Amino acid sequence: MLSFTELYSWFSIRPIELLFILSGWLIFSILLVLRYDLQFSSISYFHLFLPLFITNAIHFYFVLIVFLRILFELKQRTGLTATYTCRMIIHKLFIHTPLIIYYFTIYETEKTNSFDPMESTGLMAAVGGFLALVFIGTGLGLGLGIGLHGDSGNLTLVTTTSTTSTTDSTTVSTTTTLTTTTASTSSSYQGTLTSSSAVYGGVNQSTTNYTYEAINVYPTSNGSYTFTSTGDSGLQFYGYLYNNTFVPSNPQTNLIARSDNSSGASQFNLTSTLQSLTDYVLVVTTANRTSTGSFNITATGPGTIYFTRRNVFSQVVNYGSTINNGADQATNGLIVINTNNVVQGVDGTLTTGYVGQVSMSFFSAPTASSGLIYVYVMNRTGTTLTFTPNAIYQIPSTSITATTGVQTFTLPRNQLPVVTGQYVGVGQSTGGGSLAGVQNQALATLTPTNFTSLSAATFTNVTTGAAYLYQIFLFAAVAG
Fold first, then answer.
1. What is the pLDDT of residue 445?
2. What is the pTM of this model?
3. CB-based contacts of 172, cutoff 8 Å, min separation 6
């Protein structure tokens, strides 16, 4: 018994077309029984044969659609040729033209109420027309080098001839190879990394924050896809592909492909096999945390890639307090670090990010435009009060006002990265004012000889803390 594939290969009838044919004959048979056995005289010959006419009208519509589609794809797919077009049209005519003639023959015979196969010009025309199409079509097909095979893919016919010569005879052998060419679709995306873009610690979660953009990737077909980048001159872009979800605080989770300068190129090029109708996330970042600029991504593969920039938002965590006890903590000339908070149970930072803001509650006002105030990120040695500076930032004197109470200073993005377990302290040198005290907070103090050049030192423990609060901007989260 012929399979659907074999049926289409020989007769160019797809399962949907076979369904129309069988449906038409089923309705025709029902009408035939109603007219002759149940004597429904209201069913005319036209009504009786109408299902067959409609079925073949649909078939000719398919022929037209196939013809127009092939003409259109001839301009875009080099594997489709005029011979392919001829074969498709001839195959359709083989089947449907004789059927149309035959239906009209039966229709004419039923109306005249007489039928003689040898004298029916309609039937003879149907048989003759069918045989003529078979001979002409087969001859044309053989002459053009095509066979009655199915449209299983985009096929290119390649013929190679080799000649071997001897003293007695010459042998000529011909080898025919069918090469399958897979169509490739290209999709593109354009993005920009700016100073306000989200940041994270890089794929290895180093102490430095990297600007990045998270892009939702949605393929329409299964297969292997390649993502390549181009960007502004001098920028080195990295690409990381994730399955379904990207977690900035744990960038190794769901990572399925990466391209981060392993080949020495300044642009990324990564390839991965993707499943259709599945969400992926492509993260684009740079080699240097301070780099900003525009980039383009091109994706090539068996289907279309839909790119969508994902919503990114920042999270912040506050440490410390500016609610003071109304007393002077006398912090001028000191570097102070709040340690254990007995109320919150916090000792050092519990998150990874960067210091975005510092608020200080001044008991004695600093000197406007000349006060020296510093913010430090410190590493602590075990449970001792020995601290080693990791990063220092000086508050611009232009940001300082000569007022008591709370003053808030915003730090540049990525200026003071901080990781879990580190401490953030403040130093007040000449004109830096003095902070008020805060209850339920232990304090470590140090009197430095130089506020900008520090080494590891053991601080002094003080039972009352200093009224300052710092805000850690977490690595941005991805939503949507």
1. 95
2. 0.45
3. 161, 162, 163
